[in-house]
Amino acid sequence: MATALAAMKGQAHVSDCLLRLYIAGRSAISQRAESHLRQLHRSIKLECNIEIIDVLKSPELAEQAGVLATPTLSYEHPSRSRRIIGDLSDTKRIVEFLGIELKEQT
Prior knowledge:
alpha+beta, four-stranded mixed β-sheet, 36% helix
């Protein structure tokens, strides 16, 4: 409740952001999505924690979250949570959809 209230006041902390990726085992698409997530994480301005959940090992977590397909990226943020299904290969579209900014290239 305090986190949601802080977000409404524009006081949310960066640790309130979480990129949670649901994958199914070590398939090629799962590995590709995980790799793209790590690349995305390094390239965004916003500091977020990342979490990888293998639904084959922890199906209850996917069920609790209502995840029906993998890979699914869940962007947990107090003011604008979103979900994306796919291998996360199109960084530009993902960043636009999530409403976050990329770090400037040097």
